[in-house]
Design goal:
mainly alpha; 12 helices; about 260 residues; single chain
Length: about 260
């Protein structure tokens, strides 16, 4: 039980800005790689909370776009915009340098460049647009956001499994050894969360998520030779946006079981 609490606290501290000292003392050593089993569970909870904020806003009479804005703000506050930061740094580095060394140097710079700023604006716009398009279906939007949250956090494991760390230090290096049992448990949690959708719908979104992750991994391998913590953040954002975009397609909510 103590190990599970430590893992959950580690996952929560990695994916959110929520306090975790009440779950497991900060003075104790935690294993981020071992916490991977709960990443989809935490992602699904973030999605459910975001969808609830959106739904409540609409029920209170807010225009869908206004409720969407507050839901996006809530999500960013809950996560500390951690993945968005990694996404922006990745876009700056991947497309702003000419060599892998220079790209990694740019990604480590805390300042945001034009590529990162533009990519971040487009990501927020796409997130808000897809959520606004789905806001008229209260129960459906919560299920979609839960699934997007779970898929995007499960996708964090794929670059770690497919690629090697691009640096010999940092978060990517710390996460390089994921226990096989953690992957199995994470996949089980993801499947349970996605079961709130139709079977065909969930499988379609899962395929979209895998293709998006594979594309980003291919780019990262070619340009920097592996993955970094920023690439993991970019993976979560790209997969989330891909899943939301797929769910916003006309007729998606009418797919058969």
């Amino acid at each position: 039980m103590m190990t599970l609490r430590a893992d959950f606290a580690a996952g929560l501290s990695l994916l959110t800005r929520l306090p975790t000292g009440w779950i497991f003392p900060r003075s104790k050593t935690i294993d981020l790689a071992r916490s991977s089993w709960c990443w989809p569970l935490i992602g699904g909870a973030i999605g459910a909370a975001t969808g609830t904020i959106l739904t409540v806003g609409v029920m209170l009479g807010m225009p869908a776009i206004v409720a969407t804005g507050w839901a996006v703000i809530f999500q960013l506050f809950l996560t500390g915009a951690l993945h968005e930061d990694g996404f922006a740094d990745s876009m700056d580095g991947l497309f702003g340098g000419r060599t892998s060394e220079r790209r990694l140097e740019i990604m480590r710079d805390s300042r945001i460049g034009s590529y990162g700023a533009l990519a971040l604006c487009l990501a927020i716009l796409l997130r808000a647009g897809t959520m606004n398009a789905l806001a008229g279906q209260p129960l459906h939007i919560i299920a979609i956001l839960m699934t997007a949250g779970a898929f995007s956090r499960l996708a964090l494991m794929l670059p770690i499994l497919w690629l090697r760390p691009a640096r010999a230090d940092g978060l990517a290096h710390e996460l390089r050894h994921l226990p096989a049992r953690c992957l199995l448990v994470a996949m089980l949690f993801t499947a349970l969360i996605a079961s709130s959708l139709s079977i065909l719908g969930a499988l379609s979104l899962f395929l979209f998520a895998c293709l998006a992750t594979l594309a980003l991994c291919s780019v990262a391998y070619r340009l920097i030779g592996g993955y970094t913590g920023d690439i993991l953040g970019a993976t979560a954002i790209i997969v989330e946006l891909t899943v939301l975009s797929g769910a916003s397609l006309n007729g998606f909510d009418k797919l058969p079981f």
